[in-house]
């Protein structure tokens, strides 16, 4: 039985503020909302080991597996995952960029896999179009999770691997789409951003940007200071 990572073992934004991994910012992009600090998590590790209702696969348009996270998810889930994906898109018809589809998780600890196709970064392509497509990946995946009664979902860094989307811009999009969605929806209890093992620079980008989208309120700042003084 592969290692399983329980949700309770993955730190929330609130806990990351409490241990000073995250630092409050003077000019956040969104107002403080305390309830969100316990609904958003950051984790560096293997997304295939996380026991949640749904993990998101940064898939290619065929949904048949590939390299990176996509290949790791297909390998961990077993051959039944590829078969389920073929039934979603039989023949040569590809999954559109920005769209998402859901399958069972099969041998994964996660109950479901949400497959979404991110944009392939190119300096010659329209940046606004690519940003819209990447935003749609997160938005559509979140909505699909809610429609399938999922309470927890884990995201990789969509399009930032072999698709070469710049990590800073991709992180802004991921955080903004998640903040807007959680502001308007109470159905999802937990959203986890998963950094691949060894990509410390990517984790640092998330740690720098999360406070702009999920900031502390004045009461939270006082509580965080008290927690730090007791450590």
Automatic annotation (TrEMBL):
Record-linked PROSITE patterns: MACRO
Stretches assigned to coiled coil: none
InterPro entries linked: Macro_dom (IPR002589), Macro_dom-like (IPR043472)
Entry-linked Gene3D superfamilies: Leucine Aminopeptidase, subunit E, domain 1
Database matches in CDD domains: Macro_OAADPr_deacetylase
Pfam families for this protein: Macro (PF01661)
Macro domain: residues covered: 27-214
Protein name: Macro domain-containing protein
């Amino acid at each position: 039985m592969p290692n399983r990572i329980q949700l309770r073992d993955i730190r929330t934004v609130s806990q990351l503020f409490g241990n000073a991994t995250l630092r409050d910012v003077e000019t956040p992009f969104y107002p403080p909302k305390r309830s969100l600090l316990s609904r958003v998590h950051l984790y560096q590790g293997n997304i295939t080991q996380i026991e949640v209702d749904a993990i998101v696969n940064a898939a290619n348009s065929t949904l048949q597996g590939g390299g990176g996270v996509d290949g790791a998810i297909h390998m961990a889930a077993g051959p039944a995952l590829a078969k389920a994906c073929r039934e979603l898109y039989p023949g040569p018809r590809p999954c559109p960029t920005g769209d998402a589809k859901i399958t069972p998780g099969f041998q994964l600890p996660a109950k479901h896999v949400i497959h979404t196709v991110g944009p392939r970064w190119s300096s010659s392509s329209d940046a606004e179009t690519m940003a819209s497509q990447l935003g749609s990946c997160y938005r559509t995946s979140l909505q699909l999770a809610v429609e399938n009664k999922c309470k927890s979902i884990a995201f990789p860094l969509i399009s930032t691997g072999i698709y070469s989307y710049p990590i800073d811009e991709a992180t802004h999009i991921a955080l903004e789409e998640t903040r807007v969605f959680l502001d308007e929806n109470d159905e999802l209890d937990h959203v986890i951003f998963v950094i691949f093992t060894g990509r410390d620079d990517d984790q640092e980008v998330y740690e720098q940007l999360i406070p702009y989208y999920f900031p502390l309120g004045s009461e939270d700042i006082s509580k965080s200071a008290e927690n730090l003084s007791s450590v």
